Amino acid sequence: MIYPARDERVLRVIKKIVCGLSHHHGIESAIPESRITADVMKFRIPDEFLNEIQFRHREWDIIQYWYETYQDGPTSALWLLNFFERRMFIAWVLRK
Q1: Separation between Cα atoms, residue 28 and residue 83, nearest integer Å
Q2: CA atoms within a 13 Å half-sphere pointing along the CA-CB vector of 96
Q3: Which domain holds residue 63?
């Protein structure tokens, strides 16, 4: 059995993807991994929330993702990543 949330290698790749997407969208560049927390989504996100945040995809059947940036509070950005329309991850970036 594979448990992605328990495998540090998988979570490290998710953090690298978040770092790259943050740079790609002009949010922030060169984010240290220590500021990014990632996990497998354990609960369904309400559609109302998903409709209010930015939606993007690279190849529709490979990765779909949503993100939101925040001006105040401990979190500067929230990311939802859906791989192969099957596995959803959540990641958030802590403020400097």
Answers
A1: 23
A2: 5
A3: 4-94
